[in-house]
Write a structure and sequence with these properties.
single chain, 725 residues, alpha+beta, 32-stranded mixed beta sheet, 11 helices, 34 strands
């Protein structure tokens, strides 16, 4: 044992003497000129070593360098391509005897890298690449030398090289491209890697702070990496990356990504979390957080990426949302065929607060992405999402008020509210987005609330191709009936054109008018057929430029705001000189059927075939409504065709076969109704004949035989003609 100790002690002393001799006899600084010259020959660049090269003894024998830089050619923004303030490295001596080069951890402090590409395309890397390529070409062009003599087995033993690790402290970098005006700046980079050996897990820690153009970042993370002979076969595990990002309009205050293992062809479990805001000036338009889990895999050929068991939740708030606060959820599966640029989404479940949709879809990437989808949902209230209050139904105007006289009716007509509308916008919507994507999809909903309307069994099918939007089908139940529609919107031209065909069958018309037009003019059950087309989608263009036809058929309903039998009694009173009997009745006219067709052109909807069939009454009407001022101008001719049974009572029998004209004017939301007395007197021959006979009988009683005088008859005749003009 004593001999072994002495031998080991002798070896240690010998090694120590060798090191002392090496240090005392060899000054590494004497090799600076040779190193600089060799670098100049290899790269054409100047190597500057302003500091000293010193021996390092602890924790192992090595060298340290200070203030080393590799110069750039003249004409670049910074003088150095790469530089560092201090660098250290060590080499184990004894393994050298066994052809093993064991390099300790290489550490660099204050390292800086600068890469610039000028506007003319030249780069400070260009010389390095050319010289390297030329050197390689020269080597390969040399004639082959005769085979060397065989060497001994010891000399042919290959060197085994290992590196214990790399550490960068307070490093920085700037990559600048003057052609595009972009830059990538690393203000600080700290990197620590363990022993770089294949097949072993190596710890890595990273911290970086910098900017890419206007995007600023501050990230840190850690992981373990297992290098493989083939780089793409390397793996990561225990990944944890966190930090923050910001640009002038978007701020990501914090984010984190965690993964258990990342390797090509293998499934990885990932956890995501982020919190940030979208800003405009100093105001946050949108703020929120997102967190979730998912599984991901990228195949070894890097042609197929898959996501499974995706579950993401988000909480948002801000003025940019349709409501102050929202909670979103997304779950499903995704498959991306990278070589085909095709993304397939399956088993999607998407929710926003109480709204829930599920289905499938695909996305074909390209110059113009193409999206297809098939979604279903139970209930969707768009009124809440659009943040628009549903207009309230106006109170029925004096519905139960007793009928007034002709004078008051006329006054209502003369003083009718014009109902001036707010100025309609002439600004066309920007439909540029319709040209940036193609769509083909279907949406089915159990119920939908839109602008106060409750729709059921909604089936919407749309297609969008190069700015041409086609409504292939829209069907739904509404107000006890069924609505079907199709149409086309062509955004390829400006202003856009449209063509729509809508059919409504068996609906209760009054709820529709109350909700859509804030009017209670009509009630009844019936059909509506709308075929319109036009150019321009501004509020003004839709009314002024629309062309088409609307057909209406109603049954078992009522015309509100007007009581035709009441107005007939007023007409009777006017003709007989007797006061009209005051009967308290609702101001409405019941009908068994109402039909009309309207031609729409130049901002006017005209009709000349309005017909209303009511108990004891027959009404024919014609007129027009201007779509922009929303004014009304209609004349209805009412005839008594039945006995005194039904609405109106026996008083109307006296006017049988006499046509009673009623004029409707005013505004959509404030219509006026009045008896047209002048038309009543001038257009009824039967009434004129009755009046003539009554006048002759009255003159006979008043004047006696003088009434037969031709002069007197002439004067009476002129008076009657003036009355009926």
């Amino acid at each position: 044992m004593k001999k072994i100790v002495l031998i080991l002690l002798g070896i240690a002393v010998a090694a120590l003497l060798a090191i002392v001799t090496l240090i005392s006899l060899i000054d590494p600084n004497q090799f600076k000129p040779q190193l600089a010259e060799q670098v100049r020959k290899s790269t054409g660049r100047e190597l500057v070593m302003a500091g000293e090269i010193d021996w390092r003894f602890w924790p192992s024998l090595g060298l340290s360098l200070e203030q080393v830089a590799l110069r750039n050619p003249a004409g670049f923004a910074e003088p150095d391509l790469v530089r560092f303030e201090q660098g250290e490295a060590s080499v184990a001596l004894l393994p050298l005897l066994s052809h093993r080069l064991e390099i300790g951890k290489v550490t660099l402090s204050g390292a800086h890298l600068f890469i610039q590409t000028k506007a003319d395309g030249s780069s400070n890397l260009s010389g390095l690449m050319n010289d390297s390529a030329a050197s390689t070409a020269t080597t390969t062009s040399e004639p082959a030398k005769p085979a060397a003599e065989p060497v001994s087995a010891g000399e042919s033993q290959p060197w085994q090289i290992s590196l214990q690790g790399v550490a960068l402290s307070q490093a920085s970098a700037l990559v600048q491209d003057d052609r595009s005006g972009t830059s990538l700046r690393l203000d600080r980079l700290d990197l620590d890697m363990g022993q770089l050996a294949t097949g072993q897990w190596v710890p890595v820690t990273l911290a970086a702070k910098g900017s890419a153009d206007k995007l600023a970042f501050d990230v840190k993370g850690q992981t373990q990496i297992k290098l493989a002979q083939e780089v793409m076969a390397s793996e990561l595990k225990d990944l944890s990356l966190s930090g923050s990002l910001s640009d002038p309009s978007l701020r990501l205050d914090s984010f984190s990504i965690k993964g258990d293992r990342l390797a090509l062809g293998e499934w990885s479990n990932l956890t995501l979390a982020l919190k940030g805001a979208k800003e405009e000036g100093q105001q946050a338009l949108l703020a929120g957080s997102l967190e979730g889990t998912l599984k991901g895999r990228l195949d070894k050929e890097m042609k197929l990426a898959e996501l499974s068991d995706v579950l993401l939740t988000a909480a948002l708030e801000g003025d940019a949302l349709p409501r102050p606060q929202m909670k979103l959820k997304l779950a499903g599966f995704a498959r991306a065929e990278l070589d085909k640029q095709l993304i397939t989404l399956s088993k999607l479940v998407m929710s926003a607060d109480e709204a829930l949709l599920s289905g499938d879809g695909t996305v074909q990437l390209g110059a113009v992405p193409s999206i297809s989808f098939d979604l279903k949902g139970e209930k969707l209230d768009l009124d809440k999402w659009l943040a628009k209050s549903v207009p309230t139904t106006p109170a029925r105007a004096k519905e139960d008020k007793p009928a007034a006289g002709v004078a008051s009716t006329a006054a209502r007509g003369n003083k009718a509210v014009t109902g001036k509308s707010e100025a309609l916008s002439a600004v066309e919507p920007d439909l540029g987005a319709l040209k940036g994507v193609d769509l083909d999809g279907r949406l089915q909903l159990g119920s939908l609330r839109l602008k106060g309307l409750d729709l059921g069994a909604v089936d919407l099918q749309v297609a969008l191709a190069k700015g041409l939007l086609t409504l292939k089908q829209f069907s739904a139940t509404v107000a006890g009936g069924q609505v079907n529609a199709n149409g086309v919107l062509d955004a390829r031209q400006q202003p856009a054109t449209y063509k729509v065909h809508k059919q409504v069958a068996g609906v209760n018309i009054r709820p529709l008018l109350q909700t859509l037009a804030q009017s209670e003019l009509l009630e009844g059950k019936g059909d509506l057929d709308v075929q319109v087309q036009g150019r321009g989608l501004s509020a003004l263009a839709l009314r002024n430029g629309m062309q088409g036809k609307v057909t209406l058929k109603l049954s078992d309903g009522a015309l509100h705001g007007i009581n035709l039998p009441e107005m007939i009694r007023e007409a009777r009173a006017t003709l007989t000189g007797k006061g009209a009997e005051q009967v308290k009745e609702a101001r409405k006219t019941d009908f068994s059927a109402l039909t009309a067709s309207f031609q729409i052109a130049d901002g006017i909807a005209r009709s000349n075939d309005i017909q209303l069939f009511a108990p004891a009454l027959r009404v024919k009407g014609e007129g027009q409504t201007a779509l922009v001022p929303e004014s009304l101008d209609f004349l209805f001719l009412t005839s008594i065709v039945e006995s005194s049974k039904g609405q109106g009572g026996k008083d109307v029998d006296e006017l049988k076969e006499i046509t009673i004209p009623v004029r409707i004017g005013g505004h959509w939301q404030a219509p006026s109704y009045q008896l047209d007395v002048k038309a009543l007197l001038s257009n009824n021959k039967l009434l004129e004949e009755k009046a003539r006979k009554e006048a002759e009988r009255g003159l006979k009683k008043l004047l006696g035989d003088k009434a037969d005088n031709e002069a007197v008859k002439g004067v009476a005749d002129q008076l009657l003609k003036g009355l009926f003009k």
